[in-house]
Design goal:
4-stranded antiparallel β-sheet, alpha/beta, binds adenosine-5'-triphosphate, binds magnesium ion, about 230 residues, 6-stranded mixed β-sheet, homodimer, 7 helices
Chain lengths: ~230, ~230
């Protein structure tokens, strides 16, 4: 379902060039659960942004369901970002003037869901990540791990078929992180969701069917695991 | 050096009261290395903000070097925050319009250090966290783990005698996280720095002399470890 061919991403700063991605080719099948690991700065978030149609590569091709992303209309891209893919950002990207509930409901606004159903579904998503008691808090009235869980709830609320999660447990204690992981695995097993998780944690990676390792903008290893 | 007696922190939101801290008493000796662990939302960052003189408790007393923080003048508090304590924030709190180098140099500006020495010391601090190649990048031109390391470098640059680090390795791969940990341990062992680290990672906590566990705004356990 996800296929990249020789992706490059170059940032130009004055006379300096940063090769964030230097030729990444990968293929993720529908319903797979894949972990991406690698040292700080090696290009994981850059790759995720391209997979999530949030950024364009400088070179190479990205095909989603066989269609080249670079050739899609803005409408189609928008639909993919809002309905097809759920994205958990490494830095959460919550709206600071909205409550947890409003933040989680936002993808439903874009999907044209009516207000009452939005509220019910957003409350349900917050309940699943154990945050219903904090749903009226704004992000600066939440702990780091609570903000991370709001970001996770928001990524799930539109029932996407692909979830891209960039370090979703980085700010969570092991028990809460375990709950989130079990939630992801359940979505994966019961609904066949395709799951790509960037993680630094071995305990997360070992639940994946495959672990892709990156270094300096390229893939250096792939390990198939049977859990 | 750090002593709290029955600290309380209550946030009032409309008719709801959140007891972020519900009676925290602890004592940290000069030169100790202490880890603080506990579930997401249990009060760790709230406690750290009070220890760092960045927030006031609603109740209870905090003594730093035997002097009650609540009775100190603004000048003295300012001096403590800028020169005595180095704080690594869970959300980094970098200035988005300044480069990594400028962000790291900021505490030196407050300390009245001249420009050339500021630049040399800030470069040195970035080198220590392996980020000299990125020193001209702004935060949004850095990866999550690189931003975290800039926050760490900034906390160290004024050579504080106390370091309060709120989840300093949450966004780092295990090798980079290990480098940071070894750096903290070295400062601890060679310079007798007092180190308080909030962490979710067992591999960080096991390097501490003592692990304090929190839950629902109180301390529930303390374990002394000999490493
Ligand atoms: N400004 C605020 N207004 C209301 N409640 C708040 C505010 N700031 C924090 N809280 C609440 O206080 C509690 C403690 O927050 P704190 O940030 O100290 O948790 P934490 O232990 O650091 O969690 P984490 O591991 O997720 O970072 C949380 O339940 C949070 O929702
Ligand atoms: N806008 C930008 N301009 C210049 N360089 C950038 C920009 N964004 C990212 N980079 C650089 O690209 C490289 C890859 O960044 P990326 O965020 O993908 O890393 P990462 O693997 O997610 O790291 P981490 O594990 O620390 O989150 C980094 O070295 C970073 O400094
Ligand atoms: Mg990243
Ligand atoms: Mg916290």
């Amino acid at each position: 379902v996800i296929e990249t061919t020789d992706l490059h991403k170059i940032y130009t700063m004055g006379d300096e060039e940063v090769h964030a991605l230097a030729g990444v080719s990968l293929r993720i099948e529908r319903g797979e659960m894949v972990a991406i690991m690698g040292p700080s700065g090696c290009g994981k978030s850059t790759l995720m942004a391209i997979l999530g149609a949030l950024d364009k590569p400088t070179g190479g091709v990205y095909r989603l369901d066989g269609v080249e992303i670079g050739q899609m209309s803005d409408d189609r891209l928008s639909d993919i970002r809002n309905n097809r893919i759920g994205f958990v950002f490494q830095k959460f990207n919550l709206l600071s003037r909205s409550t947890a509930l409003e933040n989680v409901a936002l993808p439903l606004v874009y999907a044209g869901i009516p207000a009452r159903e939005r509220r019910e579904r957003a409350e349900r998503a917050l309940e699943i990540v154990d945050l219903k008691a904090r749903m009226k808090h704004k992000p600066n009235e939440l702990s780091g791990g609570q903000q991370q869980r709001v970001a996770i709830a928001r990524a799930l609320v539109n029932r996407p078929s692909i979830i891209l999660a960039d370090e979703p447990t980085g700010n969570l204690d092991s028990r809460t992180g375990e709950d989130i992981l079990r939630l992801f695995q359940e979505l994966h097993q019961t609904q066949g969701i395709t799951l790509v998780i960037v993680t630094h944690a071995a305990e997360v990676a070992e639940r994946a069917g495959r672990v892709i390792s990156m270094r300096d903008g390229v893939i250096v290893d792939e390990t198939v695991q049977t859990s």
